[in-house]
Amino acid sequence: METIIQGGTIINEGRAFRGDIVLEDDHIAALYEAEKAPRGIYQQTVDASGCFVFPGIIDAHVHFREPGLTHKADIESESRAAAFGGITSYMEMPNTSPQTTTPEAWQEKMNIASHNSHVNYSFFYGATNNNTDSFASLDRTHIPGIKLFMGASTGNMLVDRRESLEYIYKVCADQDWQLMTHCEDTGIITANMARAKTLQEDPDIKLHPLIRSEEACYESTALAVELAKKYGTRLHVAHLTTARELAFFGLNDRITAEAVIAHLYFSDADYATLGARIKCNPAVKTMADRDALRRALTDGRITTVGTDHAPHELKDKQGGCLKAASGMPMVQFSLVSMLELADKGILPRERVAELMCHNPARLFRINDRGFLRKGYKADLTIVRPNSPWTVTTDVIQSKCKWSPLEGHVFSNRVVTTICNGHIIYDNGRFDASYRGEALTFNA
């Protein structure tokens, strides 16, 4: 089937220009400058006049909670939220139940997604203290990388012994895996929490960025970078939170960093009004840190922007630093949040496409996605500017049905999401029958 997307402003590969895009079945057939598309009869026409047309957004950092934690979220509900937010592909993290630390557990997730995911999917393989022998046998064409928790995890997924870390970095280098790390120093956090608990059993949520402190992040990130340099590992540090850590990045294209929406959008001043709704690990930190991260979006120190989408039931978000669960649902609102920053002059729209489409595709070596190019998969997101809407409970698609953004008015609206040439979301209408494809990687 031939589809033409007409009259939009195409945001792609550093350019913004008015033009048309022709799709043939699940691929992009051609891109044309304004009014240069050949005349003809197309089986489907999408009027994008007055809209921005982006490549489909790729979120390289989500927690969809399935299997084992489906009272919070599941692949069906969260991939639906993704589609409503213009996300056409995601990479999901391994800390589910069971953890994705064996080939069998990874395959189970792939099977679930093939039946339930509305958009394109992939799943990280989790490193533990004793599963590195399995890395060589994994299906590299369908796995984006190895996820390593150097802090903020429990059980066998917490790897903080130097000997184990050294071996994981060496194996990933030898096998050319992309290693993605959660960097927080568990010892520093534990000591900070113990001191805080001497004053209050469940420390006030405002202390969260002091307990999960700048020092805890910096020391762990410093170690990650040291080991990556020692072994030549391809390292991507997840959810950077501090200005101090930024000094490690932008110098080596094999050592890169991610920022996520929570740390770009909120600061410690927001704990006063939002409380534990913005509690996440690593913690939302100071306004100075937030502003430094925003500046790094345009100077090469931040390579990708994701969400760390991590739904919890709202009842589990009650309490302070000890009792309230960490994480928030953001996948539906990431693109519009970044476009709000663009409207404020913090970065160009073209850079939004770089951080959320092009760079994730390059970094993780995704085949035929992340760009609007002839022959590439037809994943596209259409956004209408100057179209205000309010985040309310009834628009939230995540299973948990809450957001720290409730009540916020966005001026950019995702109007159409096209996945593999299929219009899955269009002006409030959602095709619940559609299923995405497994991402493939150039291993």
From TrEMBL:
- PROSITE patterns, from UniProt? DIHYDROOROTASE_1 (PS00482), DIHYDROOROTASE_2 (PS00483)
Looking up Pfam families in the UniProt record yields: Amidohydro_1 (PF01979)
| Cofactor(s), by name | Zn(2+)
Annotated ranges, domain Amidohydrolase-related: 52-423
Domain of life according to the entry: Bacteria
GO cellular component annotations, sorted alphabetically? cytoplasm
- What InterPro entries does the record tag this protein with? Amidohydro-rel, DHOase/Allantoinase_Hydrolase, Dihydroorotase_CS, Metal-dep_hydrolase_composite, Metal_Hydrolase
The Swiss-Prot or TrEMBL record annotates one GO molecular function as:
allantoinase activity
Spell out the NCBIfam families in the cross-references: PRK09236.1 (NF006688)
Primary role: Catalyzes the reversible cyclization of carbamoyl aspartate to dihydroorotate.
Q: Protein name, please?
A: Dihydroorotase
